[in-house]
Each structure stands twice: as C-alpha cells, then as structure tokens.
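Re: your question about Protein translocase subunit SecD

S., sorry for the slow reply, the queue was backed up all week. Below is exactly what I fed in.
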Amino acid sequence: MRKGIYLRIALILATVVLAFIFFLPNTPLFDYMPQWWKKNMPHKGIVLGLDLRGGSHLVFEVDIKRARQITVERIGMHLQSLLEKKGIKASVKISDEKIIIQPVNDEAKKLVKENYPDLSISVQGNNLLCELPESAFKRIETTSVEQAIEVIRNRVDQLGVAEPIIHRQGENEIVVQLPGVKDPKKALEIIGKTAQLEFKLLDEETPLWKELPSLIKAGEEESFLNKWKSKLPEGDELVFQKIVNKETGEVYKRPYIVKKDVLLTGDLLAEAHVSIDQRFNEPYVSLRFNDAGAKIFEEITAKYVKHRLAIILDGNLYSAPVIQERIEGGNAQITGNFSMEEAKDLAIVLRAGALPAPVKLIQNVTVGPTLGRDSIEAGKMAVIFAAVFVSLFMVFYYRLSGVIADFALILNIILLIGALAALNATLTLPGIAGIALAIGMAVDSNVLMFERIREELRVGKTPKAAIESGYKKAFWTIFDSHVTTLITAAVLFHFGSGPIKGFAVTLSLGVAINLFTALIGTKTVFDFIYIGKERKSLSI
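Result:
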C-alpha cells in the first residue's frame, strides 16, 4: 500500500518536472540556461496567437471564374498543338468557356475524343463545339482554392512566420493569419502576388508597332489603354514594362503589343533562383521548367526562332528576348533592372508556385502588439480571479478537503500549461478562455467526489472507508461527464478553424489532465494522510 502511494507521488512529481521543462522557454530563466540545454532540450514553448502577439489578418478571394477560363484556354492551346502535329488543317478559338474548332472534320473529332473524353462535342454549322461539363468546372473551382491555399502556405513558410493560420472560408475565400509579422506590407506583397507567369509572342508585324510611343508616365496606363484598345488587331493586347530612371528615380512604362495566346505558363516551373549577370553585375531570376515544361519550351523556341518572346508576370512585362535558336533543357531568365531585394522576392513567389487563379485581397487587418499585451493582461487577470475565487469557495465549503482540491487545481494549471508548451500550441484569447473553463472543471470533479464522501460518512462509515467508497461511486459519473466534454471538443476541433481549434485543444487537454489530478492527485493526498492509521473524523 505504502509503495503504491510513493509510486503515485513520484509520477506526480515527474509530470510537474516535465511541465516545467517544456514551459521553461517561455520564462526569463531560459536565457540563463547553458548552450547544451538550449540545443538538446525543448526550446519552443507556447506560441502566442495573432490576437495576443499582434500581426496581420488577411482574407483573399480566389477568382474561380478566371480559373475556369484558364483551364479552357490551356485545353484549347493543347488541342491546337496536337492538330498542328497531326497535320490537321483546323484552328482553335475560345469563346465563353467553349472551345471552337473550325472547320469540322472527322480527324479533329477523333483527336478530341482520344485526348479529352470528358469534353462534350457538338457540331454547329462548320464549327466543332467542345465544352467541359459543369461537374468538371465544379472540380476545377474546388481544386483551384485548395491549390491556392497550398501555394500561399508555401510562400508563408518561406517568410519564416511562426505558427501561421491558413484555412478556407466559405466557397472561394482564404484566411491567412500571420502572428508577429514585422513587415506586413512585404508579407502581403509576396503572399498576394497572383504569380501568373506567362510567355507570349510580341506582335512586331502589326503596323501599329511603329506608332507606339517609347515611354509613357507611370499612372497613365489606363488612359493609354482606352485610347489604343480599339486600334489593336484581333488577338492582340497591350502590356507594359516598368522602366526606372536610375539617376532621377522617375518611373515610366514602355508599352508593347503581344499576342493574347499564352504559349507557356508558370505552373510548369520547377525552380527559380537569383543569379548575377557577370557583364552588368545586375541580379536576374533564373528559371528551370519541369520535364513537361521543358519540352513545350523547346517546341516554342524551335518554332519561333528570330521572334521576341515576352516574359510576363501578373500582366507586367519583365523581359522580351529574341529567340536566337532552339533551346533545350527548359532554362529561361527574367531580367528587368531588379534590385537584389526585388529579385529575391520575385524568386520566392515563383519558387513557391504559381497560383492556379488570380487572388484579390478583400480584408487586411493589422493587430498591434499593444492590443495583444492588453489582451494577455486581461486574460491573466481573468485566470487569476477565477482560480482565487474557486479556491476560496472550496476551502470555505469543504475545509481541509477543499485545500486538497486546491492542490489539485494548482497541479491542473501547471500540467495544462506544460502540455500546451509540449505541443508548441498557439495560445489565443479563446485558448485563455479554455484555461479559465478548465479551472472550473478541475474542481467540479472534486465536488462530485466530496459529496459522495459526505453521503458515505452520513451512513456511519469511517473516514478511510468513506473516501474509498466515495471515489469508487463517483468514478463513472466523472468519467462520463469528461468523455462527453471531450466529444464536444473533438467536434469543435474538426469543424472549427483558427481560434476555435485553439479553444478545443485547451479544453480537451484540461479535461484529460483533470481526470489525472482528480482521480490520482487528490486520492494520493488522502491516502497519504490516512495511511497506517485510522482517523475518527474527516474535514469535509
């Protein structure tokens, strides 16, 4: 009997020591620990969430309509390439998410069915009309948002943000929370870039080419487009290249006429990194395409030798080199008078992946660290007041047994904080509310047991027998109530997001630890007091 009690005491002490070790990184003592300790022992602790630490709360909207259009355009481009390879004389056009092949012929029909069996085919006059079913479009919309979340997550990881929260909201919105971000403007630029990398041909053969001005002032693009839009040949569009006067710092835009047809896109990109031009000592971004992209790039450069290929990112032209010869291996460069910082940011966006569709920022909220500090102080006071009032009530109502319950309460808080630190959990305001709720639940189990013990004492049992019987009879009631709470916490965690999940984690940990402190912690204290001797009374 005595040996079993000492084993339980050792278990309680061990859990307290572990809790302290895991929580140590959140205390000033960690700064004074030796280097071997910092290197080999837990060094993360509890991370403060956005509402406590400060940072950025961003909400993006994915343009799913554009995602549908991009998919149709890619299918159209591929079909055009297949028709040319097979020597089939037919052209492909895109109109209202429909692919039109003209003129109609059996070879074109067969080619479409073999490569895209999901497309529905119909003949209208001399046109072969190909359409994706609505089920395919729904799948595209869903995957576009999911892919956008993954791309944004990759970019956030490269920013080095600790414990970011990224999740889907509604049909096509993405919520991004970045706790502790020091430069929210830069983070927004990197995360929010649509990174629609496209390769298009310059149309230097149109008569309008000679009429284009060499430069216009930055900010005049819209009026320039309105003036020239009606003059452009069908199938052409205007893009601009940013030109900065290094002496004066003035920004200009150089207009270019390009073909609307996209020859290659950034989703086939395998690698992007910053290199230095040895001749001009200027940074540029080196690109390498994956196997599929390299093959397409080789075909493009073979077909359009002596043509200029525009490299366009998010509608802005960065470079338009002349294709001198067929290029194998899928390597390309983006130049544009970058600073090193601009080149690095551009490489991050491209390396992290191209978004499947453009995204638009619809909400940007910056939470200051001062507000976070106020929230932490308010949360601390709430937890302290809750603990003090609960402790006083237990002592007043249950006397010495109430003191034992308060010991379990303190143990519960220590182990809960240690468990959160061990999981490197993100603590938010709802998480603090969960801790306060766990304090109330910590004594709830003791109340059930103490009332059972009182009932046993009323029927004439000795204190020791009353304690044993009270714990046994209260066990299943306590167990059932805690299991139902855990089920609720699991549902909150599964269906909730962000702070709701934080509350669910704190609540479930508090419930599990409460079972340990109530059924083992307080029972050990009672057994230690009454071991080896029979007391006539019990302070309860």
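The longest strand covers residues 236-244. The mean pLDDT is 81.

Happy to talk it through on Thursday.
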